[in-house]
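Work Package 4 report. The design task specified in the project plan requires that, given a folded chain encoded as structure tokens, an amino acid be chosen for each position. We show below one input record used in the internal validation round.
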């Protein structure tokens, strides 16, 4: 993924340029052009949502309203507003949920000028969506534990999914809720693919005894582990890397049995009021400049554009044992709904 110089040198140059742009934005140069507002629902980390908003406003001169929600909450809103959408773009969040929206005719097809530059996994995803969602980043699922707490409590270090159901970790794990979090639904689908459906739900029921909190945001569990509020957090590995780079005593684990991964996506909402501007936003999101906003915000996902710089902290996906994640099956609305109902019935009823 390197072009013209070392990865680190190119990253420094891009981040310097982006930082200079943010200074100009703060100085009031963001709204250089007249025009309406672009409305974006963001399912990435809060820091990245803000960085992307500022960078796009600087680039375009268009005022952008960016609201952060979990992936499932975004899908719910777009469904509710199907006949009168208030949102133009859905940016970030797990790809299987974007595929579900595409299957429900909630999105609009668009081929960006940068689509030819993206890596094969993103090209495949774009084709799978019928051209209605574009892959912007990838990341592997895993968990992280707080090494200081582990040592203080004299507990063994977990290395596998099945380690997490040990009584040693009773009341010490935080994980997201798949009804709201794309991260958690990726976990559910991953376990079904690894173990088979019945064994996966038996596993999650056992894991539930060790879980103290089901969060709405996918990155919240590793943030809790970083703060010492939980021993173990289940999230995408790049979210744990961000916390570790900030100084948290985290050990990041790619589970020994294998794990799933996400393709984060961007989509235009069908019936968007600002369609032309939405298309320009998608172009920016797929450009090397737009994808550099992730590293600028401390994020460590693998960008989809082959010309983009890989953040130094991004996990090397080639070294992680991965399942052949079935985006088509788990992006199907009926399959997703069936699995979520089974989760609510057998693992964690909504009243709990």
């Amino acid at each position: 993924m390197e072009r013209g110089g070392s990865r680190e040198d190119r990253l420094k140059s891009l981040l310097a340029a982006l930082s200079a742009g943010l200074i100009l934005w703060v100085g009031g140069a963001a709204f250089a052009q007249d025009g309406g507002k672009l409305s974006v629902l963001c399912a990435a980390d809060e820091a990245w949502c803000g960085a992307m908003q500022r960078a796009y406003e600087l680039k375009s001169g268009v005022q952008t309203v960016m609201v952060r929600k979990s992936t499932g909450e975004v899908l719910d809103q777009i469904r509710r507003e199907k006949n009168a959408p208030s949102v133009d773009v859905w940016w970030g969040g797990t790809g299987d949920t974007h595929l579900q929206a595409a299957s429900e005719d909630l999105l609009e097809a668009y081929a960006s000028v940068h689509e030819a530059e993206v890596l094969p996994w993103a090209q495949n995803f774009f084709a799978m969506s019928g051209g209605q969602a574009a892959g912007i980043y990838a990341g592997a699922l895993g968990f992280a534990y707080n090494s200081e707490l582990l040592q203080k409590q004299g507990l063994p270090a977990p290395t596998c999914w099945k380690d997490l159901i040990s009584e040693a970790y009773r009341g010490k794990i935080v994980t997201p809720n798949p009804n709201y979090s794309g991260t958690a639904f990726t976990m559910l689908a991953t376990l079904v693919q690894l173990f088979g459906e019945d064994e996966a739900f038996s596993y999650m029921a056992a894991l539930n005894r060790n879980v103290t909190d089901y969060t709405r945001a996918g990155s919240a569990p590793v943030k809790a582990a970083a703060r010492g509020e939980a021993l173990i957090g289940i999230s995408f590995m790049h979210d744990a890397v961000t916390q570790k780079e900030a100084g948290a005593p985290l050990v990041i684990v790619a589970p020994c049995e294998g794990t799933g991964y996400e393709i984060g996506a961007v989509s235009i909402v069908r019936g968007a009021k600002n369609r032309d501007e939405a298309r320009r936003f998608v172009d920016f999101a797929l450009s090397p400049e737009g994808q550099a906003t992730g590293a600028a915000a401390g994020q460590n996902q693998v960008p989809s554009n082959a010309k983009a710089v890989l953040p130094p902290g991004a996990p090397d996906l080639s070294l992680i044992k991965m399942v052949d994640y079935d985006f088509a099956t788990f992006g199907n609305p009926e399959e997703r709904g069936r699995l979520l109902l089974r989760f609510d019935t057998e693992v964690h009823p909504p009243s709990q």
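The radius of gyration is 20 Å. Validation will be extended to a larger panel in the next phase.
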